[in-house]
Design goal:
This protein has 466 residues and is of the alpha/beta class. The chain folds into two domains: 178 residues, Aspartate Aminotransferase, domain 1; 267 residues, Aspartate Aminotransferase, domain 2, CATH 3.40.640.10. The chain is 38% helix and 16% strand. The chain has a seven-stranded mixed beta sheet with strand order 4-12-11-10-7-5-6. The longest helix has 22 residues. Bound molecules: 4'-deoxy-4'-aminopyridoxal-5'-phosphate (PMP). The site of 4'-deoxy-4'-aminopyridoxal-5'-phosphate has 15 residues, from helix 8.
């Protein structure tokens, strides 16, 4: 029996497995003992994984889970997709050098051609690409350097709730204070934060179109007021749908406004597509929803077909930096590029972008139905297959801004109840109160329904202990 048949046939337990104690595994015990205190996912998802195929993963105890975390949005085609495995195998069979710094190879050349063909022509015709160290964070670092060197300015505008990576440069752009505060003031130097159009908790107390209009007015004013206190920025960086910040989609109107304002002011607009890139939001690149042309796009996660790869693609007018301005040893992972090409081609040939839209809609409809019965599901939102549900306490006093109280404990219980029933979901957002769905784009309608069914039971379980 092949691995795929085994995994496909393994039943997902919809009922909570009361006798299952995740933390009992000796592997997890050793992990806890030996790995850093900074480890993160295993704390909430105490799993030792053995095999994976498609949307399923199996742990060492033989339990099967539907993986709606999917390597934090990395597995566009799910785990071990045959086209990805074939592409990797081909690299090995051809005895290609596995690692080439930034020297070129036919595999790399093809990846660049495939990526440029996938990007909108309005952006790709004058684009340049920089391969960076293989993390989203390093692509962001490269973007910071690029725009700072090209403009001769240093300030960067970033947004509340933004997440761009964990190095000290990328961290300086992060909204979440938890990782920054212990490092002191250094990590916030040169960064000015702006309100993001977070509709459910509108910073201006307005929401909708008025909230977006005021938001844009605030930005316009900041850039035009000679006494704003903020030096002319080298760049503006944003996510079209904030991921770690709590699945917060920016309105197209806002994106168009930001593009117009930054273009007029000659400020490069950096779009961080590290999580949204490659079809996740129902467009190949999320900025396409708003029909804007950014100056810089940073990409990672899905572009390596599950292997480490990151790039920055940018308009050639910014290409003023000098040879070696952003180097790094591991920029030539041939297997990741081959896998990335296979992913782009598969997404296009199988119309997975449209599929992500309809599957996202299917899941969203069921989440909205559940919301009608469960007032703790404060907001259901997202785009395509990047969805989140903000968990609130409708009985608690609102927060100081009059917004519903976040319900961190319930979000965490829901995640745990999902896990017990064979569903892996992520938790993020303000006060870790947003449960997040990032399933592989190949998920079927039946599997979406199963995810929704398990989630509904888990919510009941988390609320009632049933
Ligand atoms: N930007 C965004 C939008 C992300 O979601 C992430 C990772 N979650 C990063 C940057 C950082 O990427 P990496 O973890 O690969 O460094």
């Amino acid at each position: 029996m092949t691995m795929s048949t085994v995994l496909a046939e393994s039943p997902i337990a919809h009922e909570a497995d009361k006798d299952y104690h995740f933390e009992d595994s000796p592997i997890l015990a050793r992990q806890k003992l030996q790995e850093s205190n900074a480890r993160s996912y295993p704390r909430r998802l105490p799993l030792a994984l053995k095999r994976a195929r498609g949307i399923h993963v199996e742990d060492v105890e033989g339990r099967t889970f539907i993986d709606c975390l999917a390597g934090a949005g990395t597995m566009a085609l799910g785990h071990n997709h045959p086209v990805v495995i074939d592409a990797i195998r081909q690299v090995l069979d051809d005895e290609l050098p596995l690692h080439t710094l930034d020297l070129s190879t036919p595999v790399k050349d093809r990846f660049v051609q495939d990526l440029f063909a996938a990007l909108p022509a309005s952006f790709a015709t004058k684009a340049k690409i920089q391969f960076t160290g293989p993390t989203g964070t390093d692509a962001v670092e490269a973007a910071l350097k690029l725009v700072r060197m090209a403009t001769g300015r240093s300030t960067i505008l970033a947004f509340h709730g933004g997440y761009h990576g964990m190095s000290q440069g990328a961290l300086s752009l992060m909204g979440n204070l938890k990782a920054k505060t212990p490092l002191g003031a250094m990590v916030s130097q040169g960064v000015q934060f702006m309100p993001f159009p977070y509709d459910y908790r509108c910073p201006f107390g307005l929401g909708g179109v008025p909230g977006v209009e005021v938001n844009l007015r605030y930005l316009r004013n900041l850039l035009n007021d000679p006494e704003s206190g903020v030096q002319a920025p080298a760049g503006v960086i944003l996510e079209v749908v904030q991921g770690e910040g709590g699945v917060i989609p920016a309105a197209d109107m806002w994106l168009r406004g930001v593009r117009e304002i930054t273009a007029k002011a000659g400020i490069p607009l950096i779009i961080d597509e590290i999580q949204t890139g490659f079809g996740r939001t129902g467009k190949l690149f999320a900025f396409e929803h708003a029909h804007i042309v950014p100056d810089v796009v940073v990409l990672s996660k899905a572009i390596g077909g599950s292997l480490p790869l990151a790039v920055m693609v940018y308009q050639d007018w910014l290409d003023t930096w000098q040879p070696g301005a952003h180097a790094g040893t591991f920029r030539g992972n041939q297997m990741a590029m081959a896998a990335g090409s296979a992913v782009i081609r598969y997404i296009e040939e199988h119309r997975l972008v449209e599929h992500a839209t309809s599957m996202g809609q299917r899941l969203r409809t069921q989440l909205l139905d559940l919301q009608k019965r469960v007032p703790q599901l404060g907001d259901v939102r997202g785009r395509g297959l990047m969805l989140g549900v903000e968990i609130i306490d409708p009985h608690a006093a609102p927060d100081p801004l009059g917004h519903p109280a976040a319900n961190t404990a319930l979000a965490s219980r829901i995640q745990r109840e999902c896990l017990k029933r064979g569903l892996i979901i992520e938790v993020g957002g303000r006060h870790s109160s947003v449960v997040r769905f990032l399933p592989p784009l190949i998920i079927t309608a039946e599997q979406i329904d199963e995810v929704a069914r398990i989630f509904a039971k888990a919510v009941t379980g988390a609320l009632t202990g049933a």
